[in-house]
From TrEMBL:
Organism of this sequence: Deinococcus radiophilus
Designated name of the protein: Plasmid replication initiator protein
Region ranges (Disordered): 345-371
Domain of life: Bacteria
A Pfam family of this chain: RPA
Residue ranges with Basic and acidic residues bias: 347-371
């Protein structure tokens, strides 16, 4: 029987879009796609807008903090805005406090119906299940506005703002089962770009097979994979660029070994091959300690050198009479957080060198514009020391993809040559 975990369904259904930005008007959607032999139909509604981009980081932080709090039976956790931002890996400044409130609203307001069905050869009929659910049952935050005009708009959280979150029961149960911990928090923090982090979440969810193991390879029809990631089929070029940027990031980090796209456009196929394989003997050791197979395989692949050391540290504490609320949870935490448990983390030289490559470029890449036209606009502002004229912006909007590429190439030259080249392409007075 296939594992039925709300957290996995959430990700498989593409509820949190991989896209970096979405319009607030994006409050409902319906999509159909097939992954393997399972057909999905997702109908979603989001009163405050569909979750996307960094919302996935906020949700993962909420799950982590709920887990660390011992998964209260009330399904409720109370924390501060500063705690939540710190756990999500985001900066603690005014911009992010304002964004945090919006993320929480989107996560609390989303609800969806998921129809999963598979053809049963023996019975000659489609069998499956229909589930209607959400993530947050109730939320309360103490927020504020910077001015007296229109006080219900432009509200934000402060560092000490208390937040009270109550998860829906099925989602809280999935956290207790530890399934969200198939994600490597260290890898997520290194990825930088929201799109890469979101794609990693979706890939990990779809890697979980019916037997609970993590697949080493995955293949999808391209149009189905776009739907599963919450990307727009109508804007195929933009969606492909989003995926390509995320692919490169995941390759640099050693998570993906190869990505192959065959065929043309929506009718093509995409194939993923993953780099890291779990050593069976390490997986068996973790299974004996009560850790679920997907989490055990993820840990054995992500941090093989830590497992025996972490187990020894946990065993030493147990010998002193220490009684954790959940031994499997404690073991997972010890492997994921070596500093917290007082031992030195060791990684392979290959993985360390990848970290060094990413660290060198992370600051520039994390906030880099994701669209070529945005990149062109950033270069224009840099060279002009002001915003381009309305005429230039109109010309930029009407350029073909080839024209945008040529303009971007011209702008990467020295300032004088860049502006001359840009003016020649745009044919307007900058």
């Amino acid at each position: 029987m296939e594992i039925r975990i709300n957290e996995l369904d959430l990700t498989r259904a593409g509820i949190i879009s991989v896209q970096r930005d979405l319009a607030p008007s994006e409050i409902s959607w319906e999509t159909e796609y097939t992954i393997g032999e399972v057909m999905y139909r997702v109908t979603g509604s989001a009163f405050h807008g569909r979750p996307h981009g960094r919302d996935a980081d906020v949700l993962l932080a909420l799950q982590t903090l709920f887990f660390r709090a011992g998964c209260p039976e009330s399904n409720t956790i109370e924390l501060s805005a500063a705690q939540l931002l710190a756990a999500s890996g985001h900066s603690r400044n005014g911009q992010y406090y304002a964004g945090l409130r919006e993320s929480l609203l989107r996560l609390s307001g989303v609800k969806w119906t998921l129809v999963r069905t598979q053809f049963d050869e023996k019975r000659q009929r489609h069998l499956g299940a229909t589930t209607t659910t959400g993530i947050i049952a109730e939320m309360e935050v103490m927020d504020q506005a910077t001015g007296s005009h229109r006080p219900f708009e432009q509200r934000e959280l402060s560092e000490a703002s208390p937040i009270k979150i109550s998860f829906v029961p099925s989602f809280a149960s999935s956290i207790r089962d530890g399934f969200f911990q198939i994600l490597d928090g260290e890898l997520l923090s290194r990825l930088g770009q929201p799109q890469a982090r979101s794609l990693y979440r979706v890939l990990q969810a779809h890697r979980v097979t019916a037997a609970g193991s993590l697949a080493g390879e995955l293949s999808f029809k391209f149009k189905d994979w776009l739907a599963a990631c919450g990307l727009e089929e109508e804007r195929l070029d933009n969606s492909k660029r989003t995926l390509e940027a995320a692919h490169e990031r995941l390759k640099v980090e050693g998570y993906l070994d190869e990505v192959t796209i065959t065929g043309r456009g929506r009718t093509g196929n995409i194939h993923y091959r993953f780099s890291l394989e779990a050593a069976p003997e390490l997986v068996d050791v973790l299974l004996e300690r009560g850790i679920t197979r997907p989490v055990a395989e993820a840990l054995a692949a992500d941090h093989p050198a830590r497992i025996k050391v972490a187990l020894r540290v946990v065993d030493e504490r147990l010998e002193t009479g220490w009684k954790p609320r959940s031994l499997p949870a404690a073991i997972v935490d010890a492997i994921r957080n070596p500093k917290k448990w007082g031992y030195a983390a060791t990684e392979s030289h290959e993985k360390t060198s990848r970290k060094e490559v990413v660290a060198r470029d992370r600051a520039q890449e994390e906030e880099a514009p994701s669209e070529p036209r945005e990149t062109v606009l950033a270069f224009l502002k840099l060279h002009l020391r002001r915003s381009p004229s309305d005429q230039a912006l109109e010309a930029l909007a009407s350029l073909s993809e080839a024209g945008v590429t040529a303009l971007l190439t011209a702008l990467k030259q020295e300032k004088a040559e860049a502006l001359q080249g840009a003016e020649a392409i745009l044919m307007v007075e900058l």
